[in-house]
Amino acid sequence: MNTRSTDARPTADIASPDETTAGRKPDGRAGRRWPRPEWTWATLAGLLLAVVLTWPTLRHPASTIPGDLGDPTLQAWQIAWSGHALLSDPAGLWHSNTFYPERYTYAYSDTLLGYAPLGMLGSGFEAALIRYNVAYVLLHALAFVGAYALVRQLGAGRWGGAVAGVAWAFAPWRLAHSGHLNILSSGGIALALAMLARGHGWSLRHGYRPERRRPGWALAGWLVAAWQVSLGFGIGLPLVYFLLAATLVAAGCYGLAWWRRRERPPFGRRLLLADLAGGAAFGTVTLLLGLVYLRVVDLNPQAVRTLDWTTMFSPPLLGFVTAPGDSWLWGERHAAAREQLSWPPEMALLPGMALIGLAAAGLFVSVYPLRHRVALGLGVLGTVLLGLGATLGGDGDPGYLTLSMHLPGWDALRTPGRMMHWTSLLLAVLAAGLVTALAESSGQPTSRRRSRILTSLVLLVPLALVTLEGVNRTPHPVVPRPPAALRTAQEPILMLPAGGAGDLTYMLWTTDGFPRITNGLAGFEPATQAQTRAAVASFPDPGSVAYLRGIGVRSVVAVPSNTAGTPWEGIEARPVDGLGITREDIDGVLVYHL
């Protein structure tokens, strides 16, 4: 059986294992099934593109980090902590070594729990950095493969899949989130949708085809969706509501077809069981994670985010055609436009000029039926309107703020612009329909060979354009190494200076053994942390030493070179006589033993 396919072939759905064989046994039974070479090449292409378009992330993975020294250091610690906790004390997973003496501190941010298997590999500071950088590259590769698989299942050809994969995985707006691994990790969204569509025998191009149902793919889709949610609700919660809505709509359409035809449309017991089992797993993961976050709110009422946050981060319409500064192609060209944005990191939302143009043309020329193109166009419009947040109509109601007021958990999604995940995915699907139509026009038997070659060269243009728009100039700063003095301190430890982004670096430093520290930084400040910082502003003195002993802190580690402009400036000159503590200087870092 010939396993190769061309863009001219009428069907472009994802190949299932039983559509491709490596041969048959003499008695006619199918031999061992092997995946199509197409998916091997797509995966390799995704990996290669990810390495090239995120470069120089893998140049010095043990010492540098993409973006800045803020959230990336936090997230490198998160991956390391989850792996360490699950290997050493699974019951203590949510009670991390930071923010001592608080509990449920691992859930103070999106947890990236789905990367825990990666966190189990290696130990220590350098391993934490390498894991993060590897994850940063792999998540881009997964986004490419996921989008490629989705548009192939929906009916697009290989050219369309390549354009959609690059356009979605390396969209300019993603460069503004180089420091947000939880936001960039969206490949599971597209991959889960591709698997679910495959499992249910559905595509945009051909509709529902019962003979192509694959229960195993449906189950896999639900499990991938559950993994996606385990990375965090920041982008996982919209997926939860999308799948819930899609399930209700599909069930309604099925019931309507049954009622109108007076006969049961084919569905299948195995597929139903796969959906029930997969949906139960997906729902269980979502519910359990939700309960943990609710517990955090119960313990820390200040963690509740008001709608003022959403209003502050709501972008103007200009933001949807403005690229972030880290875009190699558009960064400098859009500098003036970014100056009009109050918070460019969350408001520079350009999905790609080439992608916008291709998607617009795809509304008129495509392999998808007209009604589906209209639906995709309305989807783009709807997600853009939601992405405007409070900017829409002056208050966002009806709109994004309406969802914040009525959908459980949505009020915690303070950044409406992150709906661009869905906007750009819909644009990529539209673009793939156009590119596939162009590719298939060159594959007609009546077409001359020269014409086909010319069309293939023309198809390289949109692929090159979306790739060019994904080229980055993301900074990769060197991460300060943990001081040797930290290894001599007894836990629990207070790190000085305390507060600000420096606490994130301290969190990463603790990956060498995970000693408990009072420091930490999240979207809110626990009451005990604010109290501690105020109590130790004059450390070392009798009051601060008594306070620290009272809460169980046994050591204070101070980095004098970082104290300028803080309450601890000049701490190295403060006496410790008569305080009942000792101090030692290890390579310029002070360790106070309480």
Indicate the structural class.
Answer: mainly alpha
The biggest sheet, with number of strands, parallel, antiparallel or mixed sense and barrel status, is: 4 strands, mixed
- Note the beta-strand portion: under 5%
Shape summary: elongated
Please work out how many helical segments DSSP would assign.
21
Q: Gyration radius, to the nearest Å?
A: 27 Å
The total tally of domains equals 2
User: Considering DSSP H and I runs of 4 or more, what fraction of the residues is helical?
Assistant: 40-55%
Largest sheet strand order: 3-4-6-5
For the record, give the distance between the C-alpha atoms at the N and C termini, rounded to a whole number: 75 Å
Listing every helix as H and every strand as E from the N terminus to the C terminus, the arrangement reads HHHHHHHEEHHHHHHHHHHHEHHHEEE
- Record field, number of beta strands: 6
Detailed description of the structure:
This protein has helices at 37-53, 71-88, 116-119, 125-154, 158-169, 181-184, 187-199, 215-230, 233-261, 269-299, 307-312, 335-338, 344-347, 353-362, 370-387, 400-406, 420-441, 449-468, 502-509, 527-535, 542-551; strands spanning 202-203, 207-208, 493-496, 555-558, 582-586, 589-593. With 594 residues, the chain is mainly alpha-helical. It folds into 2 domains: 47-468, no CATH class; 484-593, no CATH class. The strands form 2 sheets. A 4-stranded mixed beta sheet has the order 3-4-6-5, with no helix packed on it. It has a two-stranded antiparallel sheet with strand order 1-2. A hairpin with a 3-residue loop joins β1 and β2 (207-208).
